[in-house]
Automatic annotation (TrEMBL):
Source taxon at top rank: Bacteria
InterPro entries: DUF192, Saro_0823-like_sf
Signal peptide coordinates: none
Residues spanning the membrane: 6-27
Name listed for the protein in its UniProt record: DUF192 domain-containing protein
Keyword terms, alphabetized: Membrane, Transmembrane, Transmembrane helix
Keyword Aminoacyl-tRNA synthetase (UniProt): no
PANTHER family xref list: UPF0127 PROTEIN MJ1496 (PTHR37953)
Species in which this protein is naturally found: Mesorhizobium escarrei
Claim: Membrane is one of the keywords in the record: yes
Length: 170
């Protein structure tokens, strides 16, 4: 009888440990924004191309296309390559606002419409809670390191090309 009680207790403890471990695993897979950890998304295999008057400029991008990914964005990210960025994809063109809370890097925010045309380029100051908005509905926002847009000759009216933008146009 004592052996059965120990066996039952062991099985119950093992089941509880399994449930806790499984919950911890799935919790750790969610984008982290409120827990001071940077969210790192997979780099999309296709580069984003900015078509400018001076030629084309390619960037490797992470795609933030869910609410949780867009909310976390580049928060807590300490560094990023000059040719890297994050493309925010919204379900439809709409008024959007960004802020830089918990974002230690200064950024360029490039706002583009449904057609991939750049509507506005704004600068984001580290840790600022000031709202950054293009003042018109957009479908995409590309975040790059501050100054990258100017150095690359990216201006209002230029075109952003990427499969995520191309499929949105159809």
């Amino acid at each position: 009888m004592t052996y059965r009680n120990w066996l039952t207790t062991g099985v119950v403890c093992a089941a509880i440990a399994f449930v806790i471990a499984t919950g911890a695993f799935f919790h750790s897979q969610r984008p982290a924004s409120a827990d001071s950890r940077a969210m790192i998304l997979a780099v999309d295999p296709q580069p984003l191309v900015a078509v400018t008057k001076g030629g084309e400029r390619s960037f490797s991008v992470e795609i933030a296309d869910t609410s949780a990914e867009r909310e976390a964005g580049l928060m807590f990210r300490q560094e990023m390559a000059d040719d890297h960025g994050m493309l925010f994809v919204f379900e439809e063109a709409r008024d959007v606002s960004f802020w830089m809370k918990n974002t230690p890097m200064p950024l360029d925010l490039i706002f583009a419409g449904q057609d991939g045309r750049i509507r506005a380029i704004k600068q984001g100051k580290p840790q600022s809670e000031a709202m950054i908005s293009p003042g018109e509905p957009v479908r995409f926002v590309l975040e790059l390191k501050a100054g990258t847009a100017a150095r690359s000759g990216i201006e209002d009216g230029d075109l952003l090309r990427h499969p995520a933008i191309g499929t949105a146009q159809n």
